[in-house]
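Exercise: predict the fold of this chain.
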Amino acid sequence: MSHIDLALDWTPNTNHTGFYVAREKGYYAEEGIEVAIRSPADDAYETTPANRVATGEATLAIGPSESVISYHTHPEYPSLTAVAAVCQTDRSAIVTLADESIDRPAELDGRRYASYDARFEDDIVRQLIRNDGGDGDVDIVTPPKLGIWNTVLDGDADATWVFMPWEGLLAERDGVDLTPFYLDEYDIPYGYTPVLLARPETIADDAERLEGFLTASARGYRFAAENPAEAATILREAATGIDADDPDFLERSQRELAEAYLTADGEWGWMTTERWDRFVTWLADRDILTGVDGTPIAAEDLPAEELYTNGRLPTPNA
């Protein structure tokens, strides 16, 4: 039986349910694959999941589209490629506490934003503010990654980036009112998030194992979309280190996210060049797309079709 190490982008949550379903229901075993799922809490997020893949420490990792773009523009690491979109719909948002009376992104000028210190993140947030008429003059703070949400709850930061079907629902459950700013509502054509990342040699030379993993994962995510209550139970019982094990919360989170897993045709993982190109072009047009030395990169120098592949996904409707 072959082995795959999967590095999560966060502690286990409903973004990851399909992987746990596939493992617990034996879908991976049917493909002859054993899957180890690693949480970033294992080392307090000292190493990013994308870096684990880039250095060969993990086979696959979950991350945002920006991680793909970053590694395609980094001279010291392999160009990681997206092999599946975990979600089709962006359910993330920049949020503030409602009692801070920050009612629009422009009002984040002069406020503290708790950053994950991702390469393009802060510039995207600054552009969000500018798109709403502000100056983009936000104070960036970088607390420990796994404690970022608490810095907003505790008043040590005014805003951060979260997934609404997770932190958003946790806040609602705990009686905390949030004001969310969704990127698409402010003319930011954000890419797929999260996506599954692989090294070029995994895609080219280990196709059978990768295809088996993606086939089983697609089954897991379709099951989760169609059976959210049972899928939430599987996640709660199987995920080590999950930071919210309230069954009612997990089921609600699962139901809210279920519709984001699949395409309109009911497929998991599939991506389009148009969506990748739209995001890359937006980054380039606003001088956010740069090399690690700050040199601007033109959109045509980073072809969207090189950033992802659908080639290892199961055939649609198979």
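Check your answer against the key: The two ends are 24 Å apart (CA to CA).
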